[in-house]
């Protein structure tokens, strides 16, 4: 190889580093979320993830943290399927002689100058402080990322600058978690039995002070059993093969990078029941900086190989080096941020939009058929796929990142067989998708205590609507015929067999339904369900025509005669049949706002729309308690549809208060509880911009301006950057014309 060719990799790396902007100072502040020592007592962990695997964050940046892998589930008999925590990979510990860093109590006088920053533009977590303990001080910097460019890889880098001479200890563990205790037979426990069991274990399901999670007693992680593990102290590698309880196999490996010229006094491999580690004793000099890097490779059955393959990946990553891996990772994130939502006029809202997009992107994949678990790559809501995946996350991604929305609809195509079997179980035809689907198999794993939600059947309409939206946005006829149409057809067959005909009123009804306002369990003619079912049936007729299939004539008959409860005197919709009192205290107060939900958007007159919205607000006050964020974020959409930019802006502001837990804007289910990481709430906030303020709708004839756009007072503009629709790319800007009114402009790019 000539000298010229030898230089090319270095030149390429320099150009890559320059193009990705390695200086944090160059990053737009709206992409930066920072914690200080003031957050020590209320630190609500975030996570780093690339859609395939993750690690939770921690205050020091070096602790052992739970980690999870996409659709990697524990199937312990008697329990529901739940995400199996994979061995914790991000930990590095350091002992300057007076005590281990990760065991020393948190205090502003011990961790001085503390600052931890989640850079959402780069997808990195950086932590720095001076560790002052036992009369020794060390400057510490930690940087961790889960690669967006190489999905099997992650790395964490510890840089220390000791203010003394001497020997120090470092350990690079992989944590082998024990099985969570107690484990409850949630597959068979009633609600009362579960509450009693939780209390008997010394826990509660009550709201907790930040940052304690509310539902850890029942949303505990599943177990990964390590089948084989080993390491090589000379090669500085660790590896393991494992298996989720009664589930899939997985593997993990680590390769440790040491600073050049380091004097290693001792290097040992530690193997115990709960830890696999490389332990070093090294000599350091005062004022000299030392950098240690832990390169990780992870895989699971049907995604990657075994431990030997991961060792090869981790050691190859070590040869490539941290800086180059980080540059590639940053470049991948920067590519994602070419599609963005830009708010000119409210920095706080802009930061919230970016954090919500960051969490959606961190959990999405490309060219797969995996859904989005309700609480991302965490054990929240047991990792199951709800309507959240189809009706909340999918529309939020569809125009900004269609390639990352597609796996959600592909999951429903992949799991049609379990849905067919479930339909037979309940005596209906076609496909009946479960309320809580296992993200790997699609099988129903709704907890027994929530058994009644088998009646929350609107999920089947939500799925059909998402399938049609993907087709409309992509224009992919081949996909519709091969994947989308079979799903849509099976769901139409379900609805045709699930409705009943009321001869006296000449209408079709749907009885024994759980409303989206779930306290109303087993009601007739829930308006949201009936409206969604009607839309799904009409979609099936249109899809049949597109693929050259024959639609069942009954689908149109049922749709045309579907009963949507309505109060003629009040000129508004009812939540459900008037025979059921609307008097319960719930998280939502009412579900009428969801009739205005963008992917349903039930046609109604402007006056009815105003009346529905007014009733929703009234009921939220008189029958609402600790409102659910999924409801709250949609009120901005409802206000925008009414042309009320001021009220829409007020609801956007309201959704910044209490729901975003510091320091990393983790959204929680309600203000008072700490059920966090719910992607539907982040996606709902995003939808309030993409479909709410813009007035845009995905319709049969294109991306339509269904409503006039609005802007909250004080905002200069809103830009939806790099929107993709039917293969074309646009910037869509809402700003004010000379008359002060909001106007929408599309610019092809």
Automatic annotation (TrEMBL):
<dbReference type="InterPro" id="IPR005195">
    <property type="entry name" value="Glyco_hydro_65_M"/>
</dbReference>
<dbReference type="InterPro" id="IPR011013">
    <property type="entry name" value="Gal_mutarotase_sf_dom"/>
</dbReference>
<dbReference type="Pfam" id="PF03636">
    <property type="entry name" value="Glyco_hydro_65N"/>
</dbReference>
<dbReference type="Pfam" id="PF03633">
    <property type="entry name" value="Glyco_hydro_65C"/>
</dbReference>
<dbReference type="Pfam" id="PF03632">
    <property type="entry name" value="Glyco_hydro_65m"/>
</dbReference>
<dbReference type="GO" id="GO:0016787">
    <property type="term" value="F:hydrolase activity"/>
</dbReference>
<dbReference type="InterPro" id="IPR005196">
    <property type="entry name" value="Glyco_hydro_65_N"/>
</dbReference>
<dbReference type="InterPro" id="IPR037018">
    <property type="entry name" value="GH65_N"/>
</dbReference>
<protein>
    <submittedName>
        <fullName>Glycosyl hydrolase family 65 protein</fullName>
    </submittedName>
</protein>
<keyword id="KW-0732">Signal</keyword>
<dbReference type="InterPro" id="IPR012341">
    <property type="entry name" value="6hp_glycosidase-like_sf"/>
</dbReference>
<dbReference type="InterPro" id="IPR005194">
    <property type="entry name" value="Glyco_hydro_65_C"/>
</dbReference>
<feature type="signal peptide">
    <location>
        <begin position="1"/>
        <end position="24"/>
    </location>
</feature>
<feature type="domain" description="Glycoside hydrolase family 65 N-terminal">
    <location>
        <begin position="48"/>
        <end position="298"/>
    </location>
</feature>
<feature type="domain" description="Glycoside hydrolase family 65 central catalytic">
    <location>
        <begin position="376"/>
        <end position="587"/>
    </location>
</feature>
<keyword id="KW-0378">Hydrolase</keyword>
<dbReference type="InterPro" id="IPR008928">
    <property type="entry name" value="6-hairpin_glycosidase_sf"/>
</dbReference>
<feature type="domain" description="Glycoside hydrolase family 65 C-terminal">
    <location>
        <begin position="707"/>
        <end position="736"/>
    </location>
</feature>
């Amino acid at each position: 190889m000539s000298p010229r060719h030898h230089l090319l990799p270095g030149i390429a790396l320099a150009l890559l580093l320059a193009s990705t902007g390695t200086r944090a100072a160059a990053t737009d502040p709206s992409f930066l979320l920072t914690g200080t020592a003031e957050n020590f007592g209320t630190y609500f962990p975030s996570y780093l993830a690339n859609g395939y695997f993750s690690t939770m964050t921690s205050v020091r940046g070096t602790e052992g943290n739970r980690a999870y892998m996409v659709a990697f589930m524990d199937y312990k008999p008697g329990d529901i399927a739940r995400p199996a925590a994979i061995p914790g990979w991000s930990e590095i510990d350091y002992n300057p002689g007076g005590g281990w860093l990760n065991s020393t109590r948190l205090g502003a006088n011990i961790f001085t100058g503390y600052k931890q920053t989640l850079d959402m533009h780069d997808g990195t977590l950086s932590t720095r402080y001076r560790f002052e303990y036992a009369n020794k001080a060390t400057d510490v910097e930690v940087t961790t990322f889960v690669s967006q460019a190489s999905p099997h890889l992650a790395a964490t880098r510890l840089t220390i600058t000791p203010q003394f001479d001497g020997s120090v200890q470092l350990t690079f563990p992989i944590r082998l978690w024990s099985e969570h205790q107690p484990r409850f037979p949630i597959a068979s426990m009633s609600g009362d039995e579960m509450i009693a069991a939780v209390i008997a274990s010394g826990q509660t399901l009550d709201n907790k002070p930040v940052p304690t999670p509310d539902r850890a007693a029942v949303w505990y992680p599943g177990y990964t059993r390590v089948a084989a593990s080993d390491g090589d102290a000379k090669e500085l590698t660790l590896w393991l093969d494992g298996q989720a309880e009664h589930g899939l196999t997985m593997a993990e490996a680590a390769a440790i990078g040491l600073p050049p010229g380091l004097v290693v006094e001792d290097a040992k491999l530690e193997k115990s029941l709960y830890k696999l580690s490389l332990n070093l004793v090294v000599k350091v000099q005062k004022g000299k900086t030392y950098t240690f890097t832990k390169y990780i490779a992870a895989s699971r059955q049907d995604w990657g190989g075994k431990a030997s393959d991961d060792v090869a990946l981790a050691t190859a990553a070590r040869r490539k080096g941290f800086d180059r891996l980080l540059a590639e990772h940053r470049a991948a994130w920067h590519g994602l941020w070419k599609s963005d939502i830009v708010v000119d006029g409210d920095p706080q809202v802009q930061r919230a939009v970016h954090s919500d997009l960051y969490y959606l992107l961190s959990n999405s994949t490309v060219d797969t058929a995996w859904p989005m678990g309700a609480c991302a790559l965490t054990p929240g809501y047991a990792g199951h796929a709800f309507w959240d995946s189809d009706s909340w996350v999918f529309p939020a991604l569809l125009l900004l990142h269609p390639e990352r929305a597609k796996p959600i609809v592909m999951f429903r195509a992949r799991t049609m067989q379990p849905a067919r079997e479930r339909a037979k179980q309940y005596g209906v035809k076609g496909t009946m998708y479960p309320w809580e689907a296992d993200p790997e198999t699609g099988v129903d794993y709704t907890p027994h205590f929530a058994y009644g939600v088998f009646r929350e059947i609107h999920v089947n309409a939500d799925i059909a609507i998402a399938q049609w939206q993907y087709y409309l946005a992509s224009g992919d006829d081949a996909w519709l015929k091969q994947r989308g149409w079979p799903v849509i057809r099976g769901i139409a067959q379900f609805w045709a067999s699930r409705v009943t005909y009321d001869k006296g009123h000449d209408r079709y009804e749907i009885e024994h339904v759980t409303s989206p306002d779930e306290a109303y369990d087993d009601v007739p003619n829930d308006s949201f369900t009936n409206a969604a079912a009607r839309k799904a049936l009409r979609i099936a007729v249109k899809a049949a025509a597109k693929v050259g299939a024959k639609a069942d004539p009954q689908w149109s008959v049922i749709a045309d005669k579907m009963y949507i409860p309505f109060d003629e005197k009040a000129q508004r919709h009812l939540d459900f049949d008037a025979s059921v009192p609307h008097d319960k205290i719930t998280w939502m107060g009412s579900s009428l706002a969801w009739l205005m939900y963008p992917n349903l958007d039930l046609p109604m007159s402007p006056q009815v729309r105003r009346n529905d919205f007014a009733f929703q607000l009234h009921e939220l006050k008189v029958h609402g308690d600790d409102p659910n964020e999924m409801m709250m974020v949609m009120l901005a959409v409802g206000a925008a549809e009414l042309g009320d930019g001021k009220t829409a802006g007020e609801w956007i502001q309201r959704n910044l208060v209490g729901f975003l837990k510091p320091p990393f804007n983790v959204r929680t289910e309600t203000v008072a509880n700490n059920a966090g990481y719910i992607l539907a709430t982040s996606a709902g906030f995003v939808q309030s911009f993409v479909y709410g303020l813009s007035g845009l709708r995905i319709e049969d004839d294109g991306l339509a301006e269904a409503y006039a756009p609005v802007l909250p007072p004080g905002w200069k503009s809103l830009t939806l950057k790099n929107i993709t629709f039917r293969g074309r790319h646009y910037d869509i800007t809402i700003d004010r014309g000379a008359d002060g009114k909001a106007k929408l402009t599309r610019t092809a790019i």
